[in-house]
Amino acid sequence: MTDAHTSRIQAHFGRAADAYVASAGHAAGPDLEWVIARGRQRGPARVLDIATGGGHTALAFADFTETVIATDLTEPMLRAARQLAAARGATAIRFTAADADALPFKDASFGAVTCRIAAHHFAELLPALRQVARVLRPGGSFLVEDILGHDDVELAAFMTDVERRRDPSHVRAFRQIEWTAFLRAAGLTVIDEAVVSKVRDWDDWTARAQMSSTAKRDLDRVVLAAPAHCRDAFEFMVEAGQIRSFTTRLLLLRADRD
User: Fold this and answer.
1) Cβ-contact 72, 78 below 8 angstroms
2) Pairing of strands 136-147, 242-257
3) How far apart are CA 188 and CA 136, in angstroms?
4) For the chain, how long is the longest CA-to-CA vector?
5) Is 212 helix (H, G, I), strand (E, B) or coil?
6) In what helix (H) or strand (E) does residue 194 lie, and over which residues does it extend?
């Protein structure tokens, strides 16, 4: 990952750390339950949570896993996640700064690796997946969730623009066929998959990014001026000229190391 992109990630999540810890959409929901259920099935003794953000996935796994290590690039985010874990009495979690492209762990040292709603920030996907495969034990599971990229080029470009205006560290959401191909190239085989939809409250989603009032107004104008079929594809709800919500599709995958 380049220094410039790392700085964008750290700037965005550094100022928004507390908001992500408080985010209900990250802390719970059918998507997190899907990941937890497959983690329980696998029963790993050691779990690595990459790009932990507010630490919600790490907290969930600490309920039934002996050791959880949670990594993130952003020190304020790690501090906020550590405080949440301490408040919840989760003593099995160790937090450490690390880049997904260069994980500071030995080969084959984890029974499972998790990564939720973060891969769209990776400058490149394949190097991170190769690191995941390296630190997984043979037969271990990678449990990943991220925004699902749209197959239509115009619709994908529209939503990428929306995401980047909200958060300049957003790179892009990958399509399902891309995930499968990159995982296979890294030595990981998809075992289970699902797509779930999640409604995002517009004011909550933009406020969590700590957008300025000017940037928020500009983003509103971009969405409202977009072709109707672009808004319809992501189920933007507009009332009296005000954006109320939109719907994100999330891809969930379990991929095992060969």
Assistant:
1) yes
2) antiparallel
3) 10
4) 56
5) coil
6) strand 188-201
Nearest to residue 167, comparing CAs of 134, 100, 224, 212? Answer: 212
- Express the helix, strand and coil content of the chain in percent, nearest 5 each: 45, 25, 30
Q: Which two tokens stand for residue 183?
A: 């995982």
Spatial distance between the Cα atoms of 32 and 17, rounded to a whole number of angstroms: 19
- pTM exceeds 0.90 for this model: yes
30: left (phi over 0), alpha (psi -120 to 50) or beta: alpha
Cβ contact 130:231 at 8 Å: no
* Residue carrying structure tokens 């990229």: 149
* Pick among 1.20.1560.10, 3.50.50.60, 3.40.50.150, 3.40.50.790: CATH of 3-199+248-257: 3.40.50.150
Over residues 187-229, the pLDDT tens digits come to 999 999 999 999 999 999 999 999 999 999 999 999 999 999 9
Residue 193: φ, ψ to 5°: -155, 155
Indicate the DSSP class of residue 120.
G
Two tokens, residue 70: 């949670």
pLDDT per residue as tens digits for the range 135-173: 999 999 999 999 999 999 999 999 999 999 999 999 999
Q: Measured between alpha carbons, how far is 159 from 157 in angstroms, rounded to an integer?
A: 6
Q: What are phi and psi of 141, to 5 degrees?
A: -115, 140
Question: Domain residues of the chain, as ranges?
Answer: 3-199+248-257
Q: Supply φ then ψ for residue 105, to 5 degrees.
A: -135, 155
Closest CA to 143 of 246, 243, 43, 73: 43
Strand partners, 141: 112, 256
**Spatial distance between the Cα atoms of 13 and 103, rounded to a whole number of angstroms:** 20
